[in-house]
Each structure stands twice: as structure tokens, then as C-alpha cells.
Write a structure and sequence with these properties.
single chain; 792 residues; alpha+beta; Jelly Rolls; seven-stranded antiparallel β-sheet; 30 strands; globular; DUF4986; Beta-AFase-like_GH127_cat
């Protein structure tokens, strides 16, 4: 009987919607449906086709397991084990990826999987009866508390709204890209569920709740409003405005130092959607300020941002080239969404310039070109490397966005507005502009060459304006129509308008001479990247040091390239006058026949004379360079005298380190299963800290790698005051009682080491390190925690 009821409910769910297959251009009014843009042979086409093969390797029933569990139904497969506590987030990404890639390729196997997932999710919705389609482990206790107006329980979960946001987005995308009526109704049902959950939260408690990462919840509610016109959804989108960020961005104040980057970017994607849908000037202003701040002040040459998932302060810029954990793929995925949105509101070439930079150098580079694995961190450290995921393992957030990335390459190549067609990207492709009865074919060998050719096919003469981007990296361009030069008046980072009556077979040629430039690391001019046109040129450093485990396993920290760090002084350096170095670079010589690779005679020392510069997106399975230490000989001599010893000490400590936690930073603490009570965190002198007060505590699960002779190394500020008496425990055994108040009396950081008795750790792969405050005292602040081996 229950199965019959579910069957009837599913039929009603499917029939009740007015969704349409062409939903993409309805929600994003300047875009073409992905199905109307066919990629031709290029690295992007290869990446998309490969990603289809990868997506079809995933076990759909295992991805669905969290949702069936939450609905009280029996799963057909086991949940994936990696990243416990985030069970459910990948399923939503996967649903988006299936819809996106189906729209882009027409592959029916993808649609069959999407429809199967939606059918199973619809069963979950019917079984629950409240519209919820999520997989947050133990989530019902939280949702009940929120309905009661109490947000405090959210801190007992790992980013639950972020988790469910992925399913919101997956359901929406099943309609937007693939026209699924079931997906549309499930999406709106879940929107109604969410409104009910937050209905009793006061504005104050709502703001407190939004301190916990929530993805782009404001974006999906704005989309629900765009789909239905129902005011309640726009009201909900505004309720998901985190005023800590919004108010600062609106006032033109950058408060992003040491903040978790991918927590902030999706919020601003939502700000932009509210601005666009509601024509709200304040939300537009806040979104624009954030984009300018991140793109121009906080992004690396590849278009990515952050290190250790956090925005660095200007004073800590060197951490970008010191740390293993460089820009995170998810951040760039979301920055591209924000860029598309701002471009819809104001189609300026500077948005497309950034989009191109990030697409070629970061997004394209994060897929392995053979097995299709996804990258989490792209290290900017000279001489480091990257690791890749594999199907049905390593369910990182960047696996989720990676699933989506490579199907959307056709989304921003062309946009339209009335009778105007903009060419934003130079990716070989065919556009079928059905509304106008026009086909446009773009062919090129870009970015090897800076020439792109556009052929127009139309059964009858058509008048429209063709706008070609004059890239910001190109000084001057040449335009020809049917082989004849056309006078144009354009400057870098603008559009060239060709407004005329077009006939079948007309050919437009755009010639953009490639220019070689160097670009300094933000706030650290002694490190530079080398670019040719929009493409970052890197170099392989094969054999410079071992490169362990390129393909990640399912272990907790496998997304981090944890192998040995190489001293920057053992990598190629650019020592010389910057102007002379640039002159040599601009005389680079091609390697081989038609390869996109170059040698630069006389640029490097003899040891590195054979270095080959090539697009970073082609470099995989090896250590590499994308940032180079660049100084005059005199600057380098002075720098080396001070920095080499510091570098050697840093690397020596890294080699001794078994495990480490950057206290006060979201992802490292989550990775180490932090538990806490009466604990707070912040930043001081550019470094994050955590403490606990009045009997409170915080703890981390840290790996020992089976060692029984370790030290605990803790960083403190050397001039603390007040009551700071606390215990440091290993698996609830007191390792040391500490009091840091007035202990060192110096205004600098102090690293204290505590020997761990072998009986505390012998035979254990992990231990729990706990900082327990005493009554009326504070434990900390603790600025860093590290398990290390003794010096040899």
C-alpha cells in the first residue's frame, strides 16, 4: 500500500510543474543553453569528454545512501566514508554535474542517472512528507532546534547548511540545465521546508547561525524567486544575508584577512543574485566591492585565491609561496559564478578577462588529463606538486565542484543581449543561435596563437552586432571581415562592435598578438609569474625531490600534497634586472614543431639552462614552478644572507612534523575533528588563535604515524596577561600544566615543546590533544599545535 502511495505521489510531483527544457536561458537571461554551444577539438573538449567517463564511474546508490537514511528508507549502497560529518554534500554536486554534462553533450546515460537519482530523492521527499531532501547525519535534531528558534546546536555539526545547499543546487540545476519537472518541484519543496526551519529565528539568532558556513543558500532562494515570482523566496534570500560580511562590503571595507575564503565567496554569489533579481543597488555595490577586492588584491596569477583555504593578510603574503596548500579549486568555481552574475548586470570586458585567466590556468589545470582526477589545492610553492582524486574515493568538496567544472566550458563563450552577440572567450566551438536562425563557428589554435576566426551561417541576411572582446593582456588587435581590414577603435579590456548586415559565409578574423609579461605576487613583488597572453607559463622540475602519492587514497588528509618541501634556493631563480629579464623572456624560442613550449637562453643559471616553459594547465604528475623568486643580484645577496637560514629551519621543522593544526582556521580544525566547549578564536599579529575559558576546552585528533617518541610543540604569544592557567592532555592524561601569564614577557611568538611519555602514545595511530582551562582561567591563546619527532 505504501509503495502505491509513493508511486501516485511521484506521478503528481512530475506532472505538477511547468518547467521547460530551455530553462537555462530563462534563469540566466544573457546565456545560451549549453545544448546550443558545441565545443570543437581543444583541451576544453577533451576535459569535458573525459569528465563524462569519470562521472559514469561513480556509484550512484552509494551517493544516494545519506538521503535514503535521512528519510527512514533502506539504502541500496553503503555511504562513502571520507569526510564523515559531510555525508550528503557530494550527491548534490553529482546531480548538478549530471544535468550540466547532459545539457552540454546530450549523453543519454547521464540523463538516465539523473532521472534515477531524482526518482530516489522523490521517494525520500514523499516518505518524509516535509519537503526535506538532505543527507546531514543526525540532522533532524538540528532542524527541530532551529524551528524552535535556537541556533546554538549548529556548532555541533559540520556546516549543515553548506551540506544541504549542494542538494538545493543539484535539484535546481536538474531543471535549469536538463528541464526536469521532478527536480524543479523537489527544489521548491525543499525551499519551503527551509523557510519553515528558519521561521522562528530572530534576526540576531539568524546572524549568529550564519557565522557557520552555509554555502550559497541566499543564491538558491533568489533563484526560487526568479523561477516563481513568489515574494517569500526573495525574503528568505535576504534572511540568509550574513551582515558581518555584507555590511563591510557595502561600506567598502575589506575585512577578509585570515577568513575562510570559500565560506565568503558563495555568500557574495547570493548577494549578486539578490541584486540582479530584485534590482537592489546596495547588494550590487557590496558584490562589486568584494569582486574587486578578491580579483585585484587577493588572487594569484592563475586566478585562484587563498592559502590553507584562508585569505592571507598583506603582511603574510609570503605564506602563499611557503605553504603546501595553495588556492582551492572550489573558490575559483564560485568566483566564476560571481563573475558571470556581475557580467549579466554589467557586461564589461574586465569580467571576461578574469574569467579567461581563471578558466585556463586554474579550472582547466585541476583535472588530470588522463585519468580525470580532481585537484583540491594547487600549491604556489616553488618546487611542490599536486595530488588528484579517484572515483568512489576521497569525497572532498573540490571533488564536488570538480564534477561540475568541466561541463560548463560552453557557458560563457558567448552571451547575448537583444540583437547583440558577445564573444567573451576564444574556445573553438559552434553556437546555434536558434532565436535568430544564425550559426557561428569559431576556429583557432588559441592560445598557442592569438588568432581566432568566426564564420557566420544564416539562410538569409541578418542584421546584428557582433562584439569581440579585446583582451586586457593585448595592446592592439586587428580585425578583418572577409579578408579585408576593418577600422576599429578599441583599447585593452573592451569590446569591438561590428554592427552590420551579415550574410551566409561571412568570415571575421580577430588577431590578438600574444605578449609576454611578468606578474608580481600580491603584496610580495620578489615573487613573479610568467605569462604569455592570458596563460601562466610554468615549468616541470622532475627529479628535484621525491613526489609521493600523486593519486590520493581515502585517508583524511589525502587531499594535501604532504611530501617533502623543497628549498626555494634549490629551485630555478630569476636573478637580474627585471627589465633585462623581461627582454630575454620576450625573446623566448619555441621548442619542437608547433608545441606550446619555450626555452629562454641566458635566463637561468647553468644548472637550469634546459628549463622549458609551458602552460601550467599542461603540467601534471611532477613538481613544478608557477612562482619564481626574482631579484637583482644585490637584492638577492642581501636576501639570501637573512632568508636562507630561516628557510633551512622551516624545512627542518617540516621534516620532523608528523601532524599539525593551524588553530582557529576552519578546515584544519574540522580535519582534526575538533571538539570544544566555551571556546573562541580570532587573529592576532597576523596569526589565528584559539582559546577556551572558565573550565572550557578544545581538542584535536592528531595522527602519530605509529611513533612512540614524539614532542608536542605549541605556539604562544610571548606577552600574555590575566589568568591563563590550564592543562594540556593527551587522551585525557595530563601532559603538562601551563600558565602563560607573564611567563616570557616579550612581544613575539614563542614555541614551547613538551616531551610526550611513550606510554601516552605507544601503539596508537591517533591521539587526542586537549587544552583544558581551569575555573576562572583561559587556556591559550594557542596559535599552532604540532606533533614532531625529536631532533636527530
Amino acid at each position: 500500500m505504501k509503495l502505491n502511495l509513493i508511486s501516485c505521489a511521484l506521478t503528481a510531483l512530475a506532472l505538477a510543474s511547468s518547467g521547460a527544457v530551455s530553462a537555462q536561458d530563462r534563469l540566466y537571461d544573457n546565456s545560451f543553453p549549453l545544448s546550443d554551444v558545441t565545443l570543437l577539438d581543444s583541451p576544453f573538449r577533451h576535459a569535458m569528454d573525459l569528465n563524462v567517463d569519470v562521472l559514469l564511474q561513480y556509484d550512484t546508490d552509494r551517493l544516494l545512501a545519506p538521503y535514503l537514511k535521512a528519510a527512514g528508507l533502506t539504502p541500496k549502497g553503503e555511504s562513502f566514508s571520507c569526510w564523515d560529518g559531510l555525508d550528503g554534500h557530494i550527491g548534490g554536486h553529482y546531480l548538478s554535474a549530471l544535468a550540466i554534462h547532459y545539457a552540454a553533450t546530450g549523453n543519454e546515460a547521464l540523463k538516465e542517472r539523473m532521472d534515477y537519482m531524482l526518482g530516489q530523492l522523490a521517494m525520500c521527499a514523499v516518505a518524509r512528507g516535509d519537503g526535506y531532501v538532505g543527507g546531514v547525519p543526525g540532522g533532524d535534531d538540528l532542524w527541530t532546534a532551529l524551528r524552535g528558534g535556537d541556533e546554538s546546536k549548529i556548532w555541533n555539526y559540520w556546516v549543515p547548511w553548506y551540506n544541504v545547499h549542494k542538494m538545493y543546487a543539484g535539484l535546481r540545476d536538474s531543471w535549469v540545465y536538463a528541464g526536469s519537472k521532478v527536480g524543479r518541484n523537489l527544489f521548491l519543496g525543499m525551499c519551503d521546508w527551509g523557510i519553515d526551519v528558519i521561521s522562528n529565528l530572530s534576526d540576531e539568532r539568524m546572524e549568529a547561525m550564519l557565522g557557520n558556513e552555509f554555502g550559497g543558500m541566499n543564491e538558491v532562494y533568489a533563484d526560487a524567486y526568479a523561477m516563481t515570482g513568489d515574494q517569500k523566496y526573495l525574503d528568505a534570500a535576504r534572511r540568509f544575508t550574513h551582515h558581518w560580511l555584507y555590511d563591510s562590503m557595502l561600506a567598502g571595507v575589506d575585512n577578509l584577512d585570515n577568513k575562510h575564503a570559500n565560506t565568503q565567496v558563495p555568500k557574495v554569489v547570493g548577494f549578486q543574485r539578490v541584486a540582479e533579481i530584485a534590482d537592489d543597488a546596495d547588494y550590487a555595490k557590496a558584490s562589486e566591492f568584494f569582486w574587486n577586492t578578491v580579483v585585484y588584491n587577493r588572487s594569484l596569477s592563475i586566478g585562484g585565491n587563498s592559502r590553507r583555504e584562508h585569505f592571507a593578510s598583506a603582511s603574510d603574503a609570503k605564506s602563499y609561496v611557503d605553504d603546501r596548500e595553495g588556492p582551492e579549486s572550489c573558490n575559483t568555481n564560485n568566483m566564476l559564478k560571481l563573475t558571470e552574475g556581475l557580467f549579466r548586470m554589467s557586461p564589461e570586458a574586465r569580467y571576461a578577462d578574469f574569467y579567461e585567466r581563471a578558466l585556463y590556468n586554474h579550472i582547466l589545470s585541476t583535472q588530470h588529463p588522463h585519468h580525470g582526477g580532481y585537484v583540491y589545492f594547487t600549491s604556489a610553492r616553488p618546487g611542490h606538486y599536486r595530488v588528484y582524486s579517484q572515483p568512489n574515493s576521497a569525497m572532498w568538496c573540490c571533488v564536488g565542484t570538480g564534477m561540475e567544472n568541466h561541463g560548463k566550458y560552453g557557458q560563457f563563450i558567448y552571451t547575448h543581449n537583444g540583437d547583440s552577440l558577445r564573444v567573451n572567450l576564444f574556445i573553438p566551438s559552434v553556437l546555434d543561435w536558434k532565436e535568430k536562425g544564425i550559426k557561428l563557428t569559431q576556429r583557432n589554435n588559441y592560445p598557442v596563437e592569438g588568432v581566432s576566426e568566426f564564420t557566420i551561417n544564416t539562410p538569409e541576411a541578418k542584421h546584428f552586432s557582433l562584439l569581440l572582446r579585446h583582451p586586457g593582456w593585448c595592446d592592439a588587435v586587428t580585425v578583418k571581415v572577409n579578408g579585408k581590414p576593418v577600422k576599429t577603435f578599441s583599447k585593452p579590456s573592451s569590446y569591438i562592435a561590428l554592427d552590420r548586415e551579415w550574410r551566409d559565409g561571412d568570415v571575421v578574423t580577430l588577431d590578438m598578438p600574444m605578449k609576454v609579461t611578468v606578474e608580481e605576487l600580491p603584496n610580495l613583488p620578489s615573487y613573479v609569474s610568467i605569462l604569455r597572453g592570458p596563460v601562466v607559463l610554468g615549468a616541470r622540475l622532475e627529479g628535484i625531490a621525491p613526489t609521493p602519492r600523486i593519486v590520493a587514497d581515502d585517508s583524511r588528509w589525502a587531499h594535501i600534497a604532504g611530501g617533502e618541501l623543497v628549498s626555494v634556493f634549490d629551485t630555478p631563480l630569476l636573478i637580474g634586472d627585471r627589465g633585462k629579464l623581461l627582454k630575454k623572456l620576450r625573446a623566448m624560442q619555441p621548442v619542437g614543431n608547433g608545441e606550446f613550449a619555450f626555452k629562454v637562453p641566458g635566463l637561468f643559471s647553468d644548472k637550469w639552462a634546459d628549463i622549458v616553459l609551458e602552460p601550467f594547465y599542461n603540467i601534471h604528475d611532477t613538481r613544478y614552478m608557477i612562482y619564481w623568486l626574482s631579484m637583482t643580484p644585490g637584492q638577492y645577496k642581501n636576501y639570501m644572507a637573512k632568508a636562507r637560514k630561516d628557510e633551512e629551519m622551516r624545512l627542518a621543522l617540516d621534516r620532523r612534523t608528523v601532524d599539525a593544526v593551524n588553530t582557529g582556521e576552519q578546515q584544519p580544525e574540522a580535519d582534526h575533528f575538533m571538539e570544544h566547549k566555551s571556546s573562541s578564536s580570532g587573529n592576532y599579529n597576523g596569526e589565528p588563535w584559539r582559546d577556551a575559558s572558565n573550565g572550557g576546552y578544545f581538542s584535536y585528533k592528531m595522527k602519530t604515524s605509529g611513533a612512540d617518541n614524539l614532542l608536542l610543540r605549541v605556539r604562544y604569544w610571548g606577552n600574555e596577561s590575566g589568568n591563563r592557567d590550564f592543562d594540556i592532555c593527551i587522551d585525557d592524561k595530563v601532559l603538562a600544566s601551563e600558565n602563560t601569564s607573564g611567563k616570557w614577557k616579550k612581544d613575539e611568538f614563542v614555541d614551547q615543546e613538551y616531551a610526550i611519555p611513550s606510554e601516552f602514545i605507544s601503539g596508537k595511530d591517533f591521539v587526542t590533544v586537549k587544552f583544558q582551562s581551569k575555573k576562572n582561567n583561559v587556556a591559550g591563546g594557542i596559535f599552532h599545535v604540532r606533533l614532531i619527532r625529536p631532533e636527530k
